[in-house]
Amino acid sequence: MEPTKFEKQYFGTNGIRGVIGVDMTPRLALEIAEAFGTMLGPKKTIGLGRDTRTSGPALVAAVRAGFLSCGCNVIDFDIVPTPCLQYLVLDHCLDGGIMITASHNPPEYNGIKIIEADGTEMGDERTIQLEQTMIHQKFVTTSWNNIGSVSFEPDARELYINAIVGQFSKNCGSGTTIVVDPGNGPAAATTPEILRRLGATVHVINETFDGAFPGRPPEPTAEGLASLSAKIVETNAAFGVAHDGDADRAIFVDEQGTFIDGNATFGLIASHFCRDHPGSVVVTPISTSCVVETIAARYGCTTSYTSVGSIYTARAMRNLMEAGQSVILGGEGNGGIIYPAHLFCRDGGMSAATMLNLITEKNKPLSALIAELPAFTMYQEKCKTKRTAEIIVCMKEYFEGCPTDSRDGIRITRNDAWALIRPSGTEPFIRIYTESKNSVEAKQLMDEILEKISMYLE
Ligand code: MG
């Protein structure tokens, strides 16, 4: 049922990323567009979006050139959240899309996400095919009289805003005050407007498009969201919401200004959906906290696990639905949640609207709702090493006899705790997660793993 994971050369789990002028250049962007244009063939139409990074226009120009030379037409949506582009590809029945973004990476980075005609990110098999076209330079460009054309969609953001607002009942957020921190990214033009149209009173910080990210880094960490916390307290807001650089993720801060872990948010949102759809399925990667599974089970729902990466989750959701299952929600513990009734991709604007609807309906402080969730303690570590294959072998031997799952790194279950030891898809790192209801046990398991693999670390 789950899509198979393949090794890719250029592309990581969510597209290709690099430092501008070093490993991400307009030349590379041109070749990606030429390769995608070659795969699609002439006369096809591609949607193009970008985040607010300073290098965006240079990469947009290169990507446009690649498609036009292959005889493809381009609709340029300008600055939009990634889920907005994904929505428009689907809504406009386009043949594909390119999102120019480095998501949560620092300002010197940029990257490319390739979107298929169904609005999902390109899967591994097609990405490898695209890489082969690039490696062997097998681009098929067209003659002078078949060059593609460029058009623009001035209503791009408006269409996306309407699509989300249409998922909720009118004025469902009336009486609730929220602070939005789009972090100078594309959601500055979408999330505040979505929440206002749902009836909320909205304050915004870091609200201008700015690729220098003067307000905070594109990764919404507790430290980076200090200004958001202060504004929530100052305005007596019910909560705050912040996005990463392309707004496919949403991170929440409660009414007291306390940062909420993405796993807890996912658990709370899952409780909302599972309550209304008992017997359904929630889909999530094996790195997600058991809080989601525990809550789903409370409402008679099951949890289906996938490899780590939203494309695996999104595609598994679709496969399960095609097989006749009722899939109600998907997502990751990093604030990326997928709402299949809306789109098969993570959508930060949709998460913000969902939380508004939830908090207004429950009429309880967000901190209290989070405190009611089953308590799990998770530890996460990221260690530098190139010897990831040896680490996995070592862990397999060490945990022999414990139930294991080898679909992505190695996940082991021991007594009331679990651990995931997983090589990073893009960098020379190994990521380690441990979790248990018993915090001592989770800590012990982490310490034990770190000690055992210390000889392989740099
Ligand atoms: Mg992102």
Provide structural commentary:
The chain is α/β, with parallel strands linked by helices and 458 residues long. The protein has four domains: 16-156, Alpha-D-Glucose-1,6-Bisphosphate, Chain A, domain 3 (3-Layer(aba) Sandwich), CATH 3.40.120; 172-254, Alpha-D-Glucose-1,6-Bisphosphate, Chain A, domain 3 (3-Layer(aba) Sandwich); 262-346 and 363-371, Alpha-D-Glucose-1,6-Bisphosphate, Chain A, domain 3; 377-456, TATA-Binding Protein (2-Layer Sandwich). The protein has 14 helices and 19 strands. It has helices spanning 26-40, 56-69, 82-91, 124-135, 156-165, 191-197, 226-235, 262-276, 290-298, 310-322, 348-362, 366-371, 388-398, 439-453; strands spanning 16-19, 45-50, 73-79, 96-100, 109-116, 150-152, 177-181, 201-204, 239-243, 250-253, 281-285, 302-306, 327-331, 337-338, 377-384, 404-405, 410-414, 417-423, 429-436. The strands form four sheets. A six-stranded mixed beta sheet has the order 1-5-4-2-3-6, sandwiched between helices. A hairpin with a 5-residue loop joins strand 13 and strand 14. The longest helix has 15 residues, at 26-40. The two termini are 37 Å apart. The mean pLDDT is 96. It binds magnesium ion. Residues 103-104, 244, 246, 248-249 line the site of magnesium ion. Magnesium ion binds at residues 103-104, 244, 246, 248-249.
What key phrases describe this protein's structure?
alpha/beta, six-stranded mixed sheet, 4 domains, Alpha-D-Glucose-1,6-Bisphosphate, Chain A, domain 3, binds magnesium ion, 458 residues
